Amino acid sequence: MEERIWKAIAGMHTPGFFITAEIGRTDEGMPTELESFIAGKLMQINDGISARRFVFREGQWRIYLTFFPTTEVVDERYALKNKVLHRRYK
User: Fold this and answer.
1) Residue 87 lies in a domain
2) Which tens digits make up the pLDDT trace of 6-50?
3) d(CA 81, CA 90)
4) Which letter does DSSP use for residue 13 in this model?
5) I need a labelling partner for 11 at 20 to 30 A (CA). Which of 67, 69, 77, 84 fits?
């Protein structure tokens, strides 16, 4: 079921944004309001809301969505960091 949800999100028309989804809790069947939730959040973002992380709730479903703009550099608070461990060899 989780893979179906990720594919559904990937297939949605989200101009200007790439959306990641982390599924925190599952439920039976596909969530029915996910697409309208995402469309509503896109409208809010386009209207000026600064938030980019949202929690979708329906039944037992908990899906954590992060909206990344495709037209600008990712904000520092959402950037994935690579950490490198350097060793000194004698």
Assistant:
1) no
2) 899 999 999 999 899 999 999 988 999 999 999 999 999 999 998
3) 29
4) -
5) 77
Confirm whether 90 is domain-assigned: no
The single-letter code of the amino acid at 20 is T
Q: Does the pLDDT at position 84 exceed 50?
A: no
Classify residue 71: in a domain, yes or no.
Answer: yes
Instruction: State the total domains in the chain.
Output: 1
Is residue 66 within 8 Å of 53, Cβ to Cβ?
Answer: yes
Whole-angstrom Cα distance, residue 32 to residue 57? 11
Q: Is there a domain that residue 43 lies in?
A: yes
Residues listed for the chain: 90
In terms of pTM, does the model score above 0.90?
no
